[in-house]
Predict the 3D structure of the following.
Amino acid sequence: MVFEKSLTAMVKGIRAHRGNESEYINTSIAEIKKEIQSTNMATKSMAILKLAYLTMLGYDMTWATFAVVEVMSTNRFGTKRPGYLASSISFTEQTAVGLLTINLFKKDFGSQSQYETGMAINCLSNICSAEISRDIITDLMSLLSSSRAYLRKKTVLCLYRIFLKDPPALKTCFPKLKDRLGDEDQGVLTATVNTFLELARKNARNYLSLVPQLYHILVKTTNNWLSIKLLKVFQLLSPLEPRLPAKLVEPLTNILNTTKAQSVEFEAIRCVVRTMPEGTAIVALAIEKLQVFLNSSDRNLRFLALDLYKEVVEKFKANTSLTELHDKVLTSIEESDVTARRVALQLLDRIVNPSNFQEAVQRLLEFSRKAMPNDEFIGTILSMAARDRYALVEDFAWYLLILGEIGRNMDSSYGSTVAEQFVDICVRVPQVRPYAVTLALSLLDAPAEAENTLSLCTPMVGACAWLLGEYNGEMEKPSEAQFLSGAKVLLTSRSLQVLDAATQTQCIWAATKLYLSAPEHAPAAVPELHELLNSHLPSFVRSTHLDVSERATLSLNMSSFYKADAAGIAAAKDLLAEPLLPVKADAQAQVPLSIDLEEPFFVVEEAQASFMPVRADPKDPYALASTYKDDLGILAAREEVPAPAAAAATSSMYYLGSNTTSATAETEAPEAAPEVKDPLAQMRERLEAQRAAAPKYQVMREDVAAPGPGPAGPGPSIGQAPASSSTCAIPIPPEKELADLQGRLWTVCHRGQHVAVYVCVRSPHLRKRQIRLDLRCERLDASLEIADVALQFSQVQVESSVCGRIVLCSGPLQQRSAKVKANLDSSPFVAPGVFDLRCELEYTVKNDGGEAEAQKVPVELRLPATTFLVPQALGEDAMSDYISENPELLSHQTSQAVSFEKSVSDLPMLVGRCAGLCHFHGIQQASGQDMKFILVAATLPATATPLEGQSAAPSNALVICRCAALVR
Amino acid sequence: MIKFILMVNKQGQTRLAQYYEFLSVRERVTLEGELIRKCLSRSESQCSFVEYRDYRVVYRRYASLYFIVGIDNDEDCNELAILEFIHTLVETLDKYFENVCELDIMCEPPVYAQLEVC
């Protein structure tokens, strides 16, 4: 039997079941579940209403979303309404049935009753998502010009929510929304201004064009709420439009003088403070009004005024009358309200000056004694004092005393700051030292409240101990008694043994310093000091803290060495001769440098013009490049991390960030004579040591130019390296895959007035001694007819060509030509360096008269350095032998760090792919978190006469590349 | 921007909650609980603005019912205006129910309809 219960009945029921509400609610939910099945819409609607109420008590209702949509679709307003209510409460963007509501909204927007439409708009603003918005925006646009103000107002507000979800909608709606600023209805006007305010918060610049209209509304309106919103908009716009503040003076003055609403007045003051330049009459007026607020009896006003004063003081530093404010602030600090007090403290921090600093500190201390959580006060004191190197403090002895007082507070979390300032001041202000030493002694010597406790916080004990030791010469004469009591406190106090190790060490050493300087300042106390050290240090020697024990042993040995012999001890005084001075922040810069750190340790090889793979040009999506998008799998890394600006980094062949994969960067030919410098070698060792710790992918390159005996020359191509236990060959992808990847690496080698030429350099064919190039050309000027494109090679021989002439396109060139292969003779390329192959591009252009005109353009075809490398399978041992046999011949080194923000799931795979593309053979040294790779390649065998500009590398030269990868 | 409006009674029971950004039910319950404890602990002499998590909260007490409005902390809002807004809300409710009391707010969904926000 389904029992219907109204919401009121259920609420009463919940109240009646005090103590076991959840039980009652669970039975109610069970009932609701039944009721939702009902075909009677009224019952269903009531069930949804009850459910909506329970949601507010924290019960889940996501299971009922479909029923909610059903209820929304009924025809009666009374039953429909709970549906809309429930959906605005419970639907989220993830709710799947949300999309079902679109048609409902469309239907209800056209409803006769404005309340039904209003309800739908309201609900839409709550559950809208970008998808819903796109479908519904046109309907909303038409509602914007509805004849009913009620609907216009709701729509304007709803639009804001939609813009948040679906920003493009703003563009289409903007003109219509702007028209609403002229609406006659106050409600619509307010809503529109409000919407623009919220939009302006996101990007104010877009709304400068609204200024004239907004200004007129501000001048005319009497609506407080509207005024506040307008003032806020102007606060956002003023910084962007320099003429605006001057325009605003008049209306603002008007508002300040006439308005009765404090909220508007406050907003106007804030507007003045934020937008107006210093020294104008209106600022003075605003500050005057602010003073009134500050003295108001209303706590809320006082709080806001204080808060705003913070801004005033910051902006108009010099011109505010601070004395009066100072008193006011000090009284505000006493407010019981934590929030207000904090603001007051911040304000105080800003307005103190040397003349009132002492008073302020005294007041704060008084409060801090009264209030229990008093860290705020103390924090303020400390930060005020420390500002600009104690600029506010005039009487340092007095301030030290204050610090001492604070330091006695065992609970304060500022203990270490206090101690730091205490020591810092003594170091900086020599005149205060005699006082400080006496103070330190008295602080340490103070009678403890209970046995085994110190009445001082731990960092302060350390600070006082240090002062006693360091400035014992400053004690009042005769100082025997003080020396003795000092040493006694430092060593005998039993509570010391429970302090942390650092403090104990400080105490021991301070006592030792007293002993060492006693002959000079307190000769009579020497025997007793000696006695003290001897009797008390052994207990420290037994300490469980190693550094305490060590320091105690040292001191004990010193004292047993020098005994009580004053002359002997005086000799040891040199230990402490060097005075301590405050260290400047930039002191490091004054240390003379033996090495020039600015100078790079290695000669950084000059960046060559980068050989970038062709990429889709966003401006010209139809360019050829787009069809050859290179997708090597780490492209994502390239999209996310823009390559560092340094061209040197990106153009190097081992730059993993982007174009390593393209395998087309260039490397330096080792043509540089093997000039080996000793210091360089040393620096390299250092660098290597550092590199081990560097948490980055580091790629290190060594170009080795070693004549004479070496490992076997270029022989077997890719083979398995003799693997030792921890090494294994990097998985280099099969040739087919590499060829496939390589086939995508197109690059522009010429882009002229009429024609562009693209080239893709393939792996060299070792047996045939050939390098294959794929070539294509593209017509750039669509208006002219271009035909018979050919490329004339002169430097090298090209297989199956007539005199090195490769025809790219015979006959008229359409959009782009087909791929044309050219096999160059690889034997003249002997050096692994970038090579610009000179050739000539020939084509004919038909001009206006229909005459063909032959064109010749010189083209440089750039072949990347890695083209001329041959993988060299070399085991770890063979490699180290090779390096150790030819250490003096490491002529070139560069290193480079590359980091990936994205995680690279399979690094060996990636390195293998890169190595394969660049014709390296690689082994991996360690696996797991940190990995090392060694890549080796040799140059092409030199057989023919080298090309011009190419000096042959020694026949067995190797290029070794070491990479260390660290996973962060 | 107003982030939420709560009406909570002195016992800490939420009588009405309207959120303008999505929070899960669990978050809502803890937020309401913490907030009302905070408000209850404040005396008459303290000001009506509290900072809570990322919100700046403005509250006002009418008899045993607290009206609590949460605003974005980053933007500066006019706290006084919010106080006035709360009062307007109360007056509206008062007109509608003719002398509004806690029970009315509790039992009546039309209240939501009246939460037409600035």
Q: What stands out?
A: Residues 13 and 60 of chain B are 16 Å apart (CA to CA). Chain B touches chain A through 36 residues (CB under 8 Å).
